Structures are given as structure tokens and as C-alpha cells.
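Input sequence (317 aa), recorded before submission:
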Amino acid sequence: MIDLDQLQFIGSGLHRPECALARVDGTLHMADWRGGVTLLASTGDMVTVVAKGDFQPKPNGIAILRDGGWLLTHLGDTDGGVFRLTPDGELTPFLTSVDGIDLPPTNYVHVDGQGRTWVTVSTRLQPRDLGYRADCSDGFIVLVDDTGARIVADGLGYTNECLVHPETGQLYVNETFARRLTRFDVSGSGNLVNKTTITEFGEGEYPDGLTFDADDGVWITSIVSNRVIRVDRNGNREIIVEDSDPDHIAWTEAAYQADQLGRSHLDKAAGKKLKNISSLAFGGPDLKTVYLGCLLGDSIATFRTDQAGLAPYHWHS
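Predicted structure, C-alpha cell format:
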């Protein structure tokens, strides 16, 4: 397990860098709650692109586009959607409704190697913390491809990050408050089939972000407990990093079991160093540097590992 003293921090003054993506040139792309994306170069230089105009989205998940710019999910209080942001700050709607309904607050967006876009909505409930329940199952996944947009998986337990594996082509998704990692096969038409539970998580573990390593492992961040967990191909789990406070875990677990978990339990940074980590990315020249996005910090935690990551689709984009 990585010792907390091995953690380093890069960047400063970041605004809710919930989602962090790394590229081969050493640049980190991070969601910026002010309404855009912040780029952090390997030199330490930072540039922020904020949407022009009166409407500033609240970006939760981001995806890097091959032809420049990004897709952003809008995690509004009552409204959602996916928007395209250009490098010069122009913002245009990409997806605001599906199957005849306006998108609720929208969690994550991912563009795979075929150029298909996958979007997650965690819950239809308002306010969203009503979905912080083990039995909540109204999250869904949207696919946008050449034929249009449609819901391809429904009835999920607070759908969070989802990724298509670059080698197997299967889609993995975290169901945060159902506390499980789920995998689907993707049919030729893009439908999600053969739903499989890879592993279930325990006390204090709420899977949020995920990425893949080069040895068929899935690396997952757990909010609340500040854990990085590796899940192997057989569903076995190993804690890579942990910065948990036992009292905070007990408090949140009691609330979760009583169906009373709320924003107050997620809005407290109870770790010694980590500030409610929510996403992770492998980067560096050898893909052995891990970067941790977070909900409550203003910088990015990073550490080195012997395990190489699997290059994501946007690595060379």
C-alpha cells in the first residue's frame, strides 16, 4: 500500500477538480466548477477555459475530443445535459434530452475508440441526495452514436463513471450507492448486454471514478473513505491508497444503513491529506504516475506505482 508520505500535490487554486484526464504530452485536463476546464502542463503552467456567455455549466465529468475541445456534463441543481466547449470558450449543447425527457443533473461523459459517446445520469430523484440509498435504482446510461441518442441501460444504483475498455470493448460502470462495479458487453449496435457484477464494496466504500491498468485490473476511487482500490479480473480487491478517518466512516455508514446519507456526509474532507478523491488517471511517460481528482481539494494528489496503466482512448488525441 502507498504510504501517505509518498503523495505529492500539483496545481493550486483549482475549483472542484472532480474529473482529471491525462495525455501523452504530460498535460492534465480537469473539470473546473467555474464553468469549464483547467489544463495543467508538466511545467506547472495552468490555463483555464471558461464558457463564454451567461450560462456557465457545472462540469462534473469531462471528455477530450479528438478534433479539439471537450464535452462537459452539467451537474446542475435541477437540470443537466452535455455541452461542447471549444478551446476559445464557445459553449454549445451536445445532448440535453433523450427518449423524450430532459436530462436530469448529468454525471459523466466518455468518448470511446469508435467515436461513440457514453453518458451517465446517477438518479432521476430531486434533490439528488435522495438517491444516496442502497435500494435506489433509477440511474441510467445513454449512448450517442451515428443513429442518435438512446438509453441503453436503466435501473442502475447511482450511475457514476463509465468507461469502455480499450482492449476488450466491454463497458465498466460504478454504481456508487449500490456499492458495486458492473460490466456490460457491448453489442455491434451499441446495446449493453450480459450485465455482470464484478465486485461489491463494503463499509465506507462508495465507488466513484475508475480507470484500467495494463494487467486487466480496474482502479477505483472511493469517496468518503479516500481509498484507491484495485480490482483484478476475478473481482479480488486490493487497497492501494487509504486516507480514512474511522469516526467519519462510522458516521457515514450509520447514515447509509438508515437511509439518511446526505450532502453533509460527502462535503466533509475527513482525510489527513486527501480531500474526498473522486477520479484517477494514469499518466507520465511510462503510465506509472497516478493522478487523483477530488471533490473538495484545490490541488491534485499524485504518486508513482510499479503498475503501468492502460493508455486511454484520448491519450494521443
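Checked by second reader. The mean pLDDT is 97.
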